[in-house]
Amino acid sequence: MATLIKQDDLIQSIADALQFISYYHPVDYIQAVGKAYEREQSEAAKDALAQILTNSRMCAEGHRPICQDTGAVVVFLKVGMDVRFENKMSLDEMINQGVRQAYLHPDNKLRASMVSPPIGPRKNTSDNTPAIIYTELVTGDKLEIAIAAKGGGSENKSKFTVLNPSDSLVDWVVKTLPTMGAGWCPPGVLGIGLGGTAEKAMLLAKESLMAPIDIHKLQARGAQSYSEELRLEIFDKVNALGIGAQGLGGLTTVVDVKIKEYPTHAASLPVGMIPNCAATRHIEFELDGSGPAILTPPSLDDWPDVTWQASDSSTRVNLDKLTAEEVASWKPGQRLLLNGKLLTGRDAAHKRIQELLESGEGLPKNVDFTNRLIYYVGPVDPVGEEAVGPAGPTTATRMDKFTEMMLSQTGLIGMVGKAERGPVAIESIKRHKAAYLMAVGGAAYLVSQAIRSAKVVAFEEMGMEAIYEFGVVDMPVTVAVDSCGTSVHKTGPAEWQVKIADMTFPPSHNT
Ligand code: SF4
């Protein structure tokens, strides 16, 4: 007899699952990061891991999002051929209704990041719909659902190639990974799809990220297939690159490598590679017609006992009296605690500023960047007493092309974002004796605790892309590019790659 899945049960299950993964990391991921924290020897990477772990526990306790980028929703459905649906809505409409309900939840409103159309007006759909949905018909009488909320920073680093069948997959991965920079907020899981055709390889890569983290079990029992051998080899060789947490240089860049395969043409070896980030968010469940999914919250005892604290050696900075001379004195890797007024802006705000400056209109009247820093962020809306919701940094390289304009025409003297800067931005930073500071991607709720006030000062109609003025107290950042153009995202990994090469045992085995 066919199983009947009620429309409301499916919608509720999708909404509940998305709320659940917005604040609960998968336990396997958080424990893998805990192990990485224990063995980490790089001070900078260890500090970043401590922030990620502390943020994770705070989110689990406070039911607030792990990251300000609450992701694009990706859903894999396996529909049993003996399943029937109440058919007032299409399957996709039911999923999207669940997404809408989750992202507009009044107690934990999530950031709507989807824009439509993808080019041109790029208008925010305001409820994070539509989801990206893949549906497969399988035997059976259940509906299996795997659902993820995938951050833009890690998704943007996806790679694809078609290798010659005789080429080395491992060589391609090891060569390609450093080109991804740190905008994918390592450490995470690397998903690799092999075979099929071009689009199939990418889909396999994405689907591979839904599997549990088990590389250390595989290390213990040994490989039993060629693809398991590849997983082990790629895991060791990628971690030996020394990229480390947040690209600061260190022992752990990936906490697992997943491979999903499909037969392919004799002339081809399509390869898709997609990383998962510090905001790894996915859950799997099934519906059998008996009601909505019951999702069991993890125990807080599952979280590693790690609480991040600002280093005693951190320098307190008064942003309200900041001078170009003080910025020029900061050293690469120096930890700072920011206090005072901080302006924000990301892609759309920079583009608008560029248009205003080019038209001769100048900056909006409430916006003065003279001797100020800008924070690249698109925060989650606040709830309750919060000044702002989770508000971690966004990928700074997207603002590289605006950096010369900002430093030469607005009086700005520094920037705060995540991951590395590209050569054009570093050249501008050097030319203007400015600095670039990094905050930890994936520690958004922790960072938001330092933001005590927030008001929109320009471009309100842009929603999360508006320019805010934050009042911050002891906001933790690290000098990532100093006024001489030295970048810790270059020096850190280079130093740790050499150190790891000198170690007797690969660090990834040291669990
Ligand atoms: S952890 Fe980094 S890549 Fe992941 S969603 Fe957050 S900002 Fe984006």
Structural write-up:
This protein has 511 residues and is an alpha/beta fold. The chain is built from 15 helices and 19 strands. It has helices at residues 7-23, 27-39, 43-62, 91-103, 152-155, 169-176, 198-208, 215-221, 226-239, 324-329, 347-358, 400-409, 423-431, 444-448, 488-501, and strands at residues 3-5, 72-80, 83-85, 115-116, 123-124, 132-138, 143-150, 159-163, 188-196, 254-264, 269-275, 282-287, 315-318, 335-344, 373-375, 414-417, 435-438, 451-458, 467-481. A five-stranded mixed barrel has the order 14-15-16-17-19. A four-stranded mixed β-sheet has the order 6-2-7-12. The longest helix is centred in the first third of the chain and has 20 residues, at 43-62. The termini are far apart. 49% of the residues are buried. The protein binds iron/sulfur cluster. Iron/sulfur cluster binds at residues 67, 69, 151-154, 184-185, 277-279, 392, 441-442.
What topology does this entry show?
Layout: E1 3-5, H1 7-23, H2 27-39, H3 43-62, E2 72-80, E3 83-85, H4 91-103, E4 115-116, E5 123-124, E6 132-138, E7 143-150, H5 152-155, E8 159-163, H6 169-176, E9 188-196, H7 198-208, H8 215-221, H9 226-239, E10 254-264, E11 269-275, E12 282-287, E13 315-318, H10 324-329, E14 335-344, H11 347-358, E15 373-375, H12 400-409, E16 414-417, H13 423-431, E17 435-438, H14 444-448, E18 451-458, E19 467-481, H15 488-501
Parallel strand pairs: 1-3, 2-6, 9-10, 13-14, 14-15, 15-16, 16-17
Antiparallel strand pairs: 2-7, 4-5, 7-12, 8-11, 9-11, 14-19, 17-19, 18-19
Helix pairs in contact: 1-4, 2-3, 6-9, 12-13
This protein binds iron/sulfur cluster (SF4).
